[in-house]
Amino acid sequence: MRVALFVTCVNDTLYPRTGRAVVALLERLGVTVDFPLAQSCCGQAQFNTGYLGETRPLARRYADVFADYEYVVSPSGSCAAMVRDNYPRIGEPAAAAVAPRTYELTEFLTDVLDVTDVGAYYPHTVTYHPTCHGLRVLRLGDRPRHLLEQVKGLTLHELEGADECCGFGGTFALKNPAVSAAMGADKARHVEESGAQAVCAADNSCLMHIGGTLARRGSPVRPVHIAEILASTEGDVW
Hints:
The structure is a single chain. This protein is α/β, with parallel strands linked by helices. The protein is 49% helix and 12% strand. The chain contains 13 helices and eight strands. The strands form two sheets. It has a four-stranded parallel β-sheet, sandwiched between helices. A four-stranded parallel β-sheet has the order 6-5-7-8, with helices on both faces. Strand 7, helix 12 and strand 8 (222-225) form a beta-alpha-beta unit. Helix 11 (177-193) crosses helix 12 (204-216). The protein is globular, with a radius of gyration of 17 Å. The two termini are 25 Å apart.
């Protein structure tokens, strides 16, 4: 099987390690991964702030870049949700046609590859934060948890208020900084109280917010994308 990796702006700019983990993981599972260099932003920030005219060219670009792929895989529930949920509503037929073929990483693993044990090894205690777009728009449900539960050496700690937003919300954090910071403080406190060594999620944007809050509190808990956990093996720990 050949798929295209849609790595997203945040990962490409700030967390390239996550994109490399996705490639390592999928190749270990027998998938050939292409990375089309012409890919760009999905347009979520523009769409969320009402700039529909600026969103449409980015949606058309996405459609052009990924038109020939049966599957497009992204390590971001947020950007996958933008493509799947919003592209069909912005009046760009080509973008709407590609949207159903775009998958967030964990749903691609469970729904398309039909695998929950990916052969990972991660000898740490971890708590899981289900991000808003993954939980409420893509409806990922327990898919990420099922994958984490099969990782050898990993102990999963429950997170109080797990389904509550971390407070990032893309442009929400910029428009409502005080509320965003308060929500982030609540989330960071719950993460620390879980007793885990690491907090994981399927979106680095949320992990950036949570991790920044934890760092400001002097917490030793580190943020880690779920792709990096699933890519880890006994011989190659990410």
